[in-house]
Amino acid sequence: MTHFGDFEPLCHQVPSYPWCNLFYRQLQHHNSSVLQGDSADPSAAPVGINPECGIAQAGHDGSLANIANIIACALSMILVVLLVFWTSRRRAAVGRVEFRFFLVLYFLTLPFQLISTGSFLQQGSTALTAITAIHAGLVAATFWALLANAIVSTQVVEDGTLSSIVPFNFFNLAFFIATGYIALDVGFSFTSVFGPSNPPADLHSIPLFVLTSIWPGAAAILYFAIMTYVVLAMLNEVRPMWYFVLAAVLFVLSQLDFFLLSKVICKGAAHKVDGTFVATVLETAAVAVLYFAWRSITEESWEDDMYYPR
Prior knowledge:
globular
């Protein structure tokens, strides 16, 4: 029976689910008998724990690793750099500094995603485990930055000032450190607090599950709810709302692809690619639409550009 906090169904059913790398290391050191089939050989094992479909590591049986997602991440990084540049030019726009922080954090998740799902580092290796833990911390911090941008948009504190930037970055750092530490403890079992799953086959960790699965979804929903209030109630506008709706649709589609269609794509492509690259493209598209949504509610700030340098 599956319990709340069990990663076993995800690591078995969802190809290239990055947090499985942490449990692979854990099992390798505490109960390697759980690792069977494709997962039994760490030099060839795909991302996952006994996955139904996975991409073999680069070089094994001619595998090119998770090449589609590697390309998607690389192209997404280029686009996000452009978004950061365009955001920086809007010096008088409300929430410019905070939105740029969000974009930078999202940018940082991409190279770590590229590596943690890329199938070119050996499963169970120290490098892959550590990189995956950093990736988890960055994801948690990115979704805090997303939610914080919505809070800033309400003007409960003045954007770009210490009263906004200090708590913004404090919680960014707190989410990164807390999630990163828990992920490292799951992988390396430094302590018994967040360490080995019991029983091992359940791949159980409630804190990691909450911070990497529940928290991102909750933050995205809260962000959408707050921005709906800001646009419709505070600004009394309708047109910008369509950007936020489109971004929400793209994000939901990315998650549906990743969790429901990725295995279908993997099997259809004979284990050469999975749906991770589609999810990456859709997520990056959602971030790009968020930029245009943010721009659409700060357009008038261009006229005051010279008076409010930041």
